[in-house]
Amino acid sequence: MSLRDDARAEGLRLLDWWANHLIDEARGGFLGEIDADDQPVPEAPKGVILNTRLLWFFSAMADWSGDVRALDLAHRAAAYIRERFLDGEHGGLYWLLDAAGQPLDSKKQAYSQAFAIYAFAEYYHATRDAAALAFARDLQALTEARFWDEAQGGYIEALSRDWLPLSDQRLSEKDVAAPKTMNTHLHVLEAYTRLHAVASCGGTEACLRRVLSVMLERFTGRDGHLRLFFDMDWTDRTTRVSYGHDIEASWLIWEAAEVLGDETLRTQVRPVVLALAESARREGLNAEGALAYETSHDGHLDRDGEWWGQAEALIGFVNAWQMTDDTTWMEAADKVWLYTKAQYGAGGANEWTWYAASAEREKIYKAGIWKCPYHNGRAMIELDRRLRA
After folding, report:
1. Under 8 Å CB-to-CB from 198, ≥6 apart: which residues?
2. What is the span of the domain harbouring residue 17?
3. Average per-residue pLDDT in the chain?
4. Of 248, 251, 253, which is closest to residue 192 (Cα–Cα)?
5. 3 near 358, Cβ under 8 Å?
6. Nearest-angstrom CA–CA distance, 260 and 320
């Protein structure tokens, strides 16, 4: 089968897996974790990233596949987020709940507010629910009011429940403790792009142009790689190259420019986009078709790519092919897909594994705080739409 046909089949198969494994019948919403052996972990905490990404996935699947299950699960996800993750007193979404749905970590990450905007914009697109659109717009206004640094620009990483500074703003332990990060700005860009695409207005355009400008001016380097971490005054604290983020940013930046419909802007970002894609292909992609995770500035290459990097490489390489008509980009995408099927379980009866089968790494959960169907599910939808067009 071709990559185009495979993408359609794989997207529907992923929908089956996530629809059949995550529902929390006892406590509502979705389970917080499915372990590496496909067993539920009923007492696992419930993260806002998993839940907002589930809302995005089921909403996008409802529109793409027409499957009634997806729409029902999108309704379930939207209701649970508004009922449990929303801070009714201070606004914004909590970071983490316990298994019963009570706040466990009440900090407010800009990253998580962005994913809620992204998810509710997609939910609105699938349902035309005016309340969903209002929720997304309210979260955008809150993000602008609370996280934007009026003095020096950019979005602050995190604040406390009542919007006070935090000593530790990191998304995860592996991140540099920096108050402004590429990762958060990339997903604010992604969220604002989708909101502007489904319900454009002057406010959504202004916000999208602002975050895109910051991405281009601060986070895209002349070497074809993203700068990852900054202090408040924009002192660069980047210590590594992230190939997965390079290729993901390439197509998300291009998508933002296309949604804005500005030909001058498209001309401006085109070389930036292709430089990011080319650096990921040239430095991160090996002969077998695996996209490496990252490399440090001392030259150490982490060759064991995570599942999400392979998914983003598929979209990014196809996007570069669409931009250039250069078939070597499609050859790269085909190579990544063959490797992903051979090493990550794509095309089988299960969710993709975190690492390749050949990687000497401990097995990690199939679903959880950081493992969800957003990357690979989105890749299948994007590939099907792009290749059929």
Report:
1. 121, 122, 124, 125, 133
2. 3-388
3. 97
4. 253
5. no
6. 19
